[in-house]
Write a structure and sequence with these properties.
The protein is built from eight helices and no strands. With 178 residues, it is mainly α. The chain has one domain.
Length: 178
């Protein structure tokens, strides 16, 4: 039986732009910028503002696609070791979000946990979230942080700080036939 949240029914969005934003944040972290860099945030905000409403929707969809792809990779890696991705990844990401109260309001955490569980069970995070209405402004930073935390989790698991970015870049390359 097909689900209304089946990933094949979800738009991929602008995965390249979403990856660029996440990769930029990862590089900032690895360059020792643990606090939100005001200059980096300003550039990201200018980029987002330049997209227009359709572009922002595509960026949101692309970020959800990243979350799905990251969770799919993590699910496969955990299953290969006889482990459950939801048991091992979701609590870690949620705990990290709880330590970020200036960036992630507590009321956004259950939604982000739901996105992770949806993706971890093979559902589209975007279609799962769509059931509850349109994205709110308060969910934008937590959504970005969720994708960022997953990418960093993958990078730590693989002991390669660029693995998550390469994983998506290679998938995009294969999808476009390059």
């Amino acid at each position: 039986m097909s689900s209304s949240c089946d990933p094949k029914n979800a738009p991929a969005g602008d995965v390249g732009a979403a990856l660029m934003v996440i990769d930029s944040q990862l590089r900032g972290i690895h360059d020792g910028k643990t606090e939100s860099d005001p200059e980096q945030r300003k550039l990201t905000d200018q980029f987002t503002a330049s997209l227009g409403p359709k572009g922002v929707d595509d960026l949101l969809d692309g970020t959800c696609t990243l979350i799905f792809m990251f969770m799919k990779w993590l699910r496969e890696a955990h299953e290969a070791q006889g482990k459950d991705v939801i048991e091992y990844v979701v609590p870690s990401v949620v705990a990290t979000m709880r330590m970020m109260p200036r960036s992630i309001r507590p009321e956004a955490i259950p939604t982000m946990a739901g996105l992770l569980v949806a993706a971890g069970t093979g559902l589209s995070p975007r279609l799962w979230r769509q059931q509850y209405g349109y994205w709110t402004a308060e969910e934008m930073t937590p959504l970005e942080a969720t994708a960022l935390l997953l990418a960093e989790h993958i990078n730590r698991v693989t002991d390669d700080r660029d693995f998550a970015t390469r994983l998506i870049a290679e998938a995009l390359s294969q999808a476009t036939g390059d």
